[in-house]
Task: inverse folding
């Protein structure tokens, strides 16, 4: 299990002694084996790296993930306790790494770091403007680095080792991150801070609007995309002139530790980002005790609501998404739709905030063979290629109990799955379940006593399925209206009237429409984020960065007093 241990002896510093500064010797990653890692090789570990992914879970002296604060990496001996992260695929293997288990009593340096940051940021449109150009250069270099085969493979394998997902899914995460970084190479960072001006009321007066940083900020990142989500939010914060403290999810902390080493190699000052390891209460204590002016949180709705209360609303959140897909009355391309439904519901074990949580299918699809194709696709997923794997947020019993509660609803039935994975060695603190779909009749689902359990997100390879008739479209829209979170959605149809009816009566922030519509997919080329919540955080685009990481400041220049001015009467 995840546990903290009293540090009894100082581990050898990996930064200083595990590898020389020059390129490391050739190594290869494990092939298809019981830990499910596909066969891939690369020639060298990057020169800036402080670990070799192939050693994670094998080395008897696990890699130690350090904090960095005020430009200095904290040694293992400077933090009293450490947390041990077990191998997510093999309960009998060595831990994959340990990390600083920072306590509330040990956050003093982080508080001082945040206190040293002015409210006007490290740069803004009127001060230290050279940093906009510098971050354009850093972003370009980091993006180019992630396109290099050895660096790309390093991060793919690091991701797969701590949050098991298929090679294609892990590679996609690295590819999207590289594209984002390259999008903001060159002048595009300073273009984010573009101002505007309006004529004033008289000669010599002009008003100018600026995008202004917050200064000290915090990022609390999730486990499921250990590179893409924290990098996109981190870089957005930096681009706009803020100084962030990043608190990554404990299970995947190695990924962002290593990415910071890459950023330092690309020229980022070490003082620009603090990395705090530990659990939620420590991050909360830092946020409350220091002058952090904005916290960006990605994760569960429960924690998001708590942070909203303790910060007085100074949060931008991308929290739970119980994401729906509606199949319209026009049936076509059944093979494609079945494949996309499988990808949306079960890729990365359903551990995506955009995963397909509920499917509303028009009755015309029932005779198309869609259900059978979905079942066949789900049954083809395997542990050995990580197209199915451990659920890091729920135990098997927890998921099975949820299924049992759904089956108490009249007419509910398991369409496929509903069983524990066979022949696995996944630790018992995690979940191991077959891709599962439970059918619930629409009218039963809408009953007050059943609705909440039907729309509870499990963050697992699990979905609810229902069907509707022509005269029940409004019931489907009622269900969508009653859901509490509105992140992604899909309307699969080419019927213009049907699309317009659904789209005009729903609110999800990232909605795909058409026969190729999906719920998952957070590339760098469009906005990704919830709608309908004033605290909603977007990610990836210039609009998202400006919305989350800067505020509006108006400066009115009024310079010229007219010749011959005379004092008027007081008003």
Result:
């Amino acid at each position: 299990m995840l546990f903290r241990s009293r540090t009894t002896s100082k581990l050898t510093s990996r930064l200083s002694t595990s590898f020389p500064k020059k390129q490391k010797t050739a190594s290869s990653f494990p092939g298809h084996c019981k830990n499910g890692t596909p066969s891939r090789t690369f020639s060298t570990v990057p020169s800036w790296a402080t670990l070799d992914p192939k050693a994670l879970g094998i080395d008897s002296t696990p890699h130690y993930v350090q904090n960095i604060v005020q430009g200095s990496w904290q040694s293992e001996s400077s933090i009293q306790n450490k947390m041990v992260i077990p191998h997510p695929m093999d309960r009998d293997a060595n831990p994959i790494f340990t990390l600083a288990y920072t306590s509330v009593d040990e956050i003093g340096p982080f508080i001082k770091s945040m206190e040293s940051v002015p409210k006007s940021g490290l740069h803004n449109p009127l001060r230290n403007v050279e940093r906009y150009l510098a971050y354009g250069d850093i972003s370009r270099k980091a993006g180019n680095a992630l396109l290099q085969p050895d660096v790309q493979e390093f991060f793919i394998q690091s991701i797969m080792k701590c949050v098991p997902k298929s090679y294609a899914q892990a590679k996609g995460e690295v590819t999207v991150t590289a594209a984002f970084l390259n999008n903001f190479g060159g002048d595009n960072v300073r273009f984010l801070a573009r101002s505007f001006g309006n004529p004033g009321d008289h000669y010599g007066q002009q008003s100018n609007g600026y995008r202004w940083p917050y200064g000290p900020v915090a990022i609390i990142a999730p486990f499921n995309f250990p590179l893409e989500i924290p990098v996109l939010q981190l870089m957005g914060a930096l681009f706009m002139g803020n100084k962030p403290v990043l608190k990554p999810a404990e299970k995947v902390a190695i990924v962002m530790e290593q990415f910071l080493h890459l950023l330092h190699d690309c020229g980022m000052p070490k003082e620009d980002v603090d990395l705090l390891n530990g659990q939620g209460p420590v991050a909360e204590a830092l946020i409350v005790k220091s002058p952090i002016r904005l916290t960006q949180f990605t994760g569960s709705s429960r924690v998001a609501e708590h942070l909203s209360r303790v910060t007085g609303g100074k949060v931008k959140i991308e929290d739970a998404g119980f994401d729906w897909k509606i199949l319209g009355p026009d049936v076509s391309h059944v093979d494609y739709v079945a494949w996309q439904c499988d990808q949306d519901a079960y890729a990365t074990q359903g551990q995506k905030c955009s995963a397909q949580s509920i499917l509303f299918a028009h009755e015309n699809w029932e005779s198309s063979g869609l259900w059978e194709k979905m079942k066949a696709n789900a049954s083809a997923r395997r542990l050995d290629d990580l197209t199915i794997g451990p659920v890091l947020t729920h135990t098997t019993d927890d998921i099975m109990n949820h299924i049992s509660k759904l089956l108490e609803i009249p007419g509910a039935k398991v369409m496929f799955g509903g069983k524990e994975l066979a022949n696995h060695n996944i630790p018992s603190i995690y979940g191991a379940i077959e891709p599962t779909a439970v059918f619930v009749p629409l009218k039963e689902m809408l009953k007050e006593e059943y609705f909440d359990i039907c729309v509870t997100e499990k963050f697992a390879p699990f979905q609810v399925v229902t069907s509707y008739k022509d005269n029940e479209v409004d019931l489907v829209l009622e269900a969508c209206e009653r859901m509490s979170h509105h992140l992604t959605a899909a309307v699969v149809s080419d019927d213009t009237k049907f699309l317009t009816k659904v789209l005009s009566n729903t609110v999800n922030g990232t909605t795909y429409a058409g026969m190729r519509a999906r719920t998952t997919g957070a590339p760098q080329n469009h906005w990704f984020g919830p709608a309908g919540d004033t605290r909603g955080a977007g990610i990836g685009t210039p609009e998202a960065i400006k919305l989350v990481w800067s505020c509006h400041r108006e400066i009115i220049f009024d310079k010229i007093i007219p010749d011959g001015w005379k004092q008027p009467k007081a008003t």
Observations:
- Residues 237 and 549 are 5 Å apart (CA to CA).
